């Protein structure tokens, strides 16, 4: 049985992504499009569109051609959408990098994508200079100023925007990273059409008024931040107030001072808004709506937020490979639901053993089809075939059901990813690190529930000789990005495995969640 949502189908324009996003820029020319939370740096829509066109011309003048790749390594800044859309308008694609990743992780992404140019914030200069060795990067371009890097302003020519033809359905415009069902991160290829479709879908389901102000905290290198926060806001003429890093008091002060109307949050921030005594020190009365994403939002936390702030709160569901696919705009209507299909999106639930299509209120794997579903994984045809069916349905790896009202409920994850504060953490990657410790004979990693982080990585370890949890956690922390750190360690005599050697994570979850 194929489930569709309540929304009528919409036409997806056959154009470039940047042309689509900037279609109303002239109409909102004098409205502030992006501004730093401190107010120190801002662009109106007129200035934003002009800078994108001039930077795109500057990239072409530097030899950046159709199909070339530009990488971005920066937190949320007012200039971020300018650099992103300049590369897209010049006919290239953009690989979006996580500043929290290690140099080794970043180098692997740059090599895989073949990125020639690396755009950074000044804070990432040391890491960027290390990346010049052993990667295709030819030049570092900095948003601002930093010794040894080309200022982004140097790209701005006096010429008109370049006229570049793209194939919206075939040409990749963004490369994000996802671990998929298992294993190490893979490059997710998103075409102009994928991105246009999803920005259009989300803006129709969760519309913004032109006078709205959005606090841009979810990172732009993440699908949630890239689609809903950055691009859907710019399409609709809202003002983006960017925050490079999250700090509770700075966050709450920004809501008050900028009179923020729309918050996009991960569950960790929702917990802060629902329960922290800090909230009472600030005037948050301007907030009209909160949308949560990145991980499941607890219904009780949603209720507390709604009652405390006097606003609507809902959540979206998606994944890097299928962006934002479902939206629930009022959590009070169906607590625990992630909503109904956005326009043009089909869903089916299949038996995880037989693949048989299931009906309403039956648990199975969630499959999604629509114009927003990725083109595939970069340089990974077999991995692509494993998740994309010939008929276009994508295996999400999530277990859930659709109720009689068409609401989707997520029950569990078949795939093994851990969601730590909205970031994806691969247990397989952490297990590989653990197994390099000289005292460890065997290891397994799972996610265990945590009120603030949604989940935290917990390691189960079989040792050859005595070791302490602190020693092992420090060992891993020295070798991975901060968000990937193991937060708990438990010593056991044997890792439970199937006859073919696969870790029985469900058994560990039952054990781990009761022995915290």
UniProtKB/TrEMBL annotation:
Keywords: ATP-binding, Ligase, Nucleotide-binding. InterPro entries: AMP-bd_C (IPR025110), AMP-bd_C_sf (IPR045851), AMP-binding_CS (IPR020845), AMP-dep_synth/lig_dom (IPR000873), ANL_N_sf (IPR042099). The keyword Chloroplast does not apply. GO terms for molecular function: ATP binding; CoA-ligase activity. PROSITE patterns: AMP_BINDING. Residues 429-502 form the AMP-binding enzyme C-terminal domain. Residues 23-378 form the AMP-dependent synthetase/ligase domain. PANTHER family: AMP-BINDING DOMAIN-CONTAINING PROTEIN-RELATED, LONG-CHAIN-FATTY-ACID--COA LIGASE. Belongs to the ATP-dependent AMP-binding enzyme family. This is Acyl-CoA synthetase (AMP-forming)/AMP-acid ligase II.
């Amino acid at each position: 049985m194929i489930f569709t949502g309540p929304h009528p189908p919409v036409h997806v324009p056959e154009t470039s992504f940047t042309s689509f996003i900037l279609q109303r820029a002239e109409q909102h020319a004098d409205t502030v499009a992006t501004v730093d939370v401190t107010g120190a740096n801002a662009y109106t829509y007129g200035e934003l569109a002009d800078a994108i066109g001039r930077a795109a011309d500057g990239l072409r003048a530097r030899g950046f051609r159709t199909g070339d790749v530009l990488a971005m390594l920066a937190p949320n800044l007012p200039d971020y959408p300018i650099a992103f859309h300049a590369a897209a308008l010049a006919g290239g694609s953009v690989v979006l990098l996580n500043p929290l990743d290690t140099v080794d992780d970043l180098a692997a992404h740059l090599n895989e994508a073949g990125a020639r140019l690396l755009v950074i914030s000044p804070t990432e200069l040391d890491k960027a200079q290390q990346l010049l060795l052993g990667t295709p990067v030819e030049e570092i371009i900095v948003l601002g100023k930093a010794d040894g890097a080309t200022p982004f302003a140097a790209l701005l020519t006096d010429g008109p925007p370049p006229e570049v033809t793209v194939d919206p359905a075939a040409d990749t415009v963004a490369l994000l990273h996802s671990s998929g069902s298992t294993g190490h991160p893979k490059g997710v290829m998103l075409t102009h059409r994928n991105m246009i479709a999803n920005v259009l879908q989300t803006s129709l389901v969760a519309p913004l008024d032109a006078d709205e102000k959005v606090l841009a905290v979810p990172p732009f290198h993440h699908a949630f931040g890239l689609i809903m926060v950055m691009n859907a806001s710019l399409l609709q003429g809202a003002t983006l107030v960017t925050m490079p890093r999250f700090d509770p008091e700075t966050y709450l002060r920004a809501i008050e001072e900028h009179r923020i109307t729309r918050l996009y949050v991960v569950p960790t921030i929702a917990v802060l808004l629902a329960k922290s005594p800090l909230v009472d020190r600030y005037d948050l009365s301007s907030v009209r709506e909160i949308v949560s994403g990145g991980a499941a939002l607890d219904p009780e936390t949603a209720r507390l937020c709604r009652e405390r702030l006097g606003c609507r709160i809902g959540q979206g569901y998606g994944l890097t490979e299928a962006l934002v696919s479902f939206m629930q705009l009022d959590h009070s209507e169906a607590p625990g639901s992630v909503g109904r299909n956005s326009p043009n999106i089909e869903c089916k639930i299949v038996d995880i053993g037989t693949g048989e299509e299931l009906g309403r209120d039956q648990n199975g794997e969630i499959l999604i089809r629509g114009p927003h579903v990725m083109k595939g994984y970069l340089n990974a045809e077999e991995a692509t075939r494993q998740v994309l069916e010939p008929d276009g349905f994508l295996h999400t790896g999530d277990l859930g059901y659709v109720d009689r009202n068409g609401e989707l409920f997520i029950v569990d994850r078949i795939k093994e990813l851990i969601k730590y504060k909205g970031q994806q953490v691969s247990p397989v990657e952490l297990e590989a690190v653990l197994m390099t410790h000289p005292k460890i004979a065997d290891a397994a990693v799972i996610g265990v529930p945590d009120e603030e982080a949604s989940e935290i990585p917990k390691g189960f370890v079989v040792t050859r000789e005595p070791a302490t949890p602190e020693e092992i956690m420090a060992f891993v922390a020295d070798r991975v990005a901060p968000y990937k750190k193991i937060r708990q360690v438990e010593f056991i005599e044997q890792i439970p495995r199937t006859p073919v050697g696969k870790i029985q994570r469900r058994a560990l979850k039952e054990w781990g969640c009761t022995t915290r």
